[in-house]
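Board notes (copied after class):
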Amino acid sequence: MILLGSTGSIGVNTLEVAKKFSISVEVLVAGNNIELLNSQIREHNPKTVVIANKDDIHKVNHNSVTCGEEAILRAIEEAQSDLVVNALVGFLGLRPTLKALKMGKKVALANKESLVACGAFIDTAKIQPIDSEHFGLWYLMQNRPVEKMIITASGGAFRDWDIARLESATLEDTQKHPNWSMGQKITIDSATMMNKMFELLEARWLFGEGRYDAIIETKSLIHALIDFKDGSTTAHFAHASMQLPIAFALDGKMQENILPHVDLLKIGSLEFREITTDRYPIWRIKEELLKTPSRGVVVNAANEAAIEKFIAKEIGFMDIAKTVIKAYEKFDTLPKSVDDVFALDEEVRAFIV
């Protein structure tokens, strides 16, 4: 397989599953964590390695190392592997998704931005989602009429904060996720609830038109629910581990045990909460955005630009959502092609700056 984003949490888990199923790794694509990358190279012996920065090439213990976006696209084009696991973070992951699909490869997709920004122009038939929430929905799907699909959220770092404190929340505060450790951007997105907005948009492109919503489940043991039209609801329970959806993406039969079962007697109880607009202002645009999902490119570009400003301490935490909503209200044209998506992305970022 080709693994994009090998040193992130999803990449690390993907390599664990690959080892379990004896799947060879042809290409590793990583960012700046060269020490971890070198240990992955020793264990998995890829043919090709691509990293982010030219200055780090001499640190990588491999005889075929290149850098940058064009090198990623070239590696996908030249590789023999039929499977691309895209665990890159951000809009950077879109072109590799498009390239892999153009080459007729199957994409195990953890890069949210590909579908959020460009879902209207992506054939999802060759995509296997490896987010827990979309995997959960897929797992629950049956040939029965669906009323609504629901995904769950942890609530992020500030789910228990007094709302008045949110204005003064720092970057360090956003990283204190209550349930697990993830990368910097996705943990910020979890705190603003943007992560869940993106997942609803992804679900819309993956499963088609319909009703979608999200609720907070504080223990992150239920990942998805489906309300059927007959009045019944099914839920997907599993311990929070990316290895289960990754395993299904790598081996569709999946007859091995991947996780211990959830012991409900040990859990004792579950708590559910509503996602409210006072704590998560971005939720104001949820319904309208789901009706016009092609506008996801605007929301994604504005969010990435706003997060950069937040990290640089140019704006406060609550300004992230305000910035995104401001851009969303300004840019209401729908992209009519992939080229339009990239052009609109640039235009929105320039507006934020």
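Comment from the instructor: The chain has three domains: 2-129, 131-155+193-275, 160-178+285-353. The chain has 15 helices and twelve strands.
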